Amino acid sequence: MSIENETSFLRSLKNYFLTLYRSVSALQRAAQTGIGYLLSTSESKREITELYPDPVSSRTADELPTRSRGFLHNDIARCTGCYACSEVCPTGCFKIHTEEGPKPGKLWVETFDIDDSRCLFCGLCVEACAPGSLTHTRQYEGAAESVGRLRAEFGRGPISREMRERWRKQREAQAEDSGEFQT
Questions:
Q1: CATH among 1.20.210.10, 2.60.200.30, 3.30.70.3270, 2.40.320.10 for 70-182
Q2: Window from 52-61, 73-82, 137-146 with minimum mean pLDDT
Q3: What is the distance between the alpha carbons of residues 173 and 81, in angstroms, rounded to a whole number?
Q4: Which DSSP helix (H) or strand (E) runs through 112?
Q5: What are the helix (H) ranges across the chain?
Q6: Is the distance from CB of 75 to CB of 131 less than 8 angstroms?
Q7: Peptide bond before 158: cis, by omega within 30 degrees of 0?
Q8: Domain map of the chain by residue range?
């Protein structure tokens, strides 16, 4: 064996034993904590786990401060699909997709999803929302079986062929009506 290989081997061996020592000492500290609690008498045991929600100290939504930031809600009827909330969000928790809507210059918000597992509840998106459609609710407690279920969907859905055809006919009718009034 060369000298370089020997020093590399000794360094690896040293790291192995150091990691083993740290693991054993951490396990010993954890065991001391648990065993001490288990061996104590029932009178000296203090209750550690509380009921949830605690009937004494739990807050209801009405008791929260006025500027509390709960989960986000989007009033899709007021939303213009301007992407301001998505642009200012530091975590990228928004998924927005828009298309041309029934009126020229107005967008149809097909998809407006908020991933609550990524949201920091910082409020930057609410401040950036010009139409005021994005707000914080008073709900702050949420649980889900999987991370994928922590998604709030507010979009209007995809545009169907029938909708496009109806909108085209409405535009044509409006163009004809505006032409009659100008004559």
A1: 3.30.70.3270
A2: 52-61
A3: 26
A4: strand 107-115
A5: 3-39, 84-88, 124-128, 161-182
A6: no
A7: no
A8: 1-38, 70-182
The residue assigned the tokens 């034993």 is 17
Q: In which residue are the tokens 């040293």 written?
A: 14
pLDDT digits (tens, 9 = 90+) for 141-151: 888 888 888 99
Retrieve residue 115's tokens: 């991933």
Q: Measured between alpha carbons, how far is 73 from 14 in angstroms, rounded to an integer?
A: 55
Q: Which residues contact 61 (CB under 8 A, 6 or more apart)?
A: 70, 138, 139
**Residue positions counted in the chain:** 183
Say which residue the tokens 């500027």 belong to.
67
